[in-house]
Amino acid sequence: MPQFYYVTTKTKEEAKRIAKALLQKKYIAGANMFPLESLYWWQDKICEEEEYALVMQSTKDNFAKIEELVKTLHSYEIPCIVSFAITESSPDFLNWIRETAEHIDKKEE
């Protein structure tokens, strides 16, 4: 099943490094990066930070591989790694993700 993956990072460089590593392993079909302002609780205080977000396309079956690689490359102690199903989309976009995922599966065999 096609999925979006959402990961936040400390810097643009970190976001790009993680996205490129996932693309090189063919764990994802593509990635979008954008800046954001985050507010969150950490170690008993409210933090306000500029971060970068990655929104990536892959399949549900790749979650464990994506999570493992992101954790090894990420600077945060507890990185945000979330996936959510694509419930509706243009057929061409879904086919592109599926075709890429088939290639990923074959590479891993």
Task: Characterise the protein shown here.
There is one protein chain. This protein is of the alpha+beta class. It has helices at 12-24, 63-73, 91-108; strands at residues 2-9, 30-42, 45-59, 81-85. A hairpin with a 2-residue loop joins β2 (30-42) and β3 (45-59). α1 packs across α2. The longest helix has 18 residues, at 91-108. The radius of gyration is 15 Å and the shape is elongated. The mean pLDDT is 92.
Offer a few descriptive terms.
109 residues, 3 helices, alpha+beta, four-stranded antiparallel β-sheet, elongated
Q: Residue-averaged pLDDT, rounded? A: 92
DSSP summary, beta strand count: 4
Oligomeric status of the shown chains?
single chain
The secondary-structure element order is: EHEEHEH
Q: How much strand content do the residues show?
A: 35-45%
The computed structural class is: alpha+beta
Number of helices: 3
Q: Major beta sheet, specifics?
A: 4 strands, antiparallel
The side-by-side strand order for the widest beta sheet comes to: 2-3-1-4
Instruction: Provide the gyration radius in Å.
Output: 15 Å
Residue ranges: pLDDT <50 for 5 or more in a row? none
Proportion of helical residues: 25-40%
Could you tell me how far the N terminus lies from the C terminus, measured between alpha carbons in angstroms?
A: 19 Å
Shape: elongated
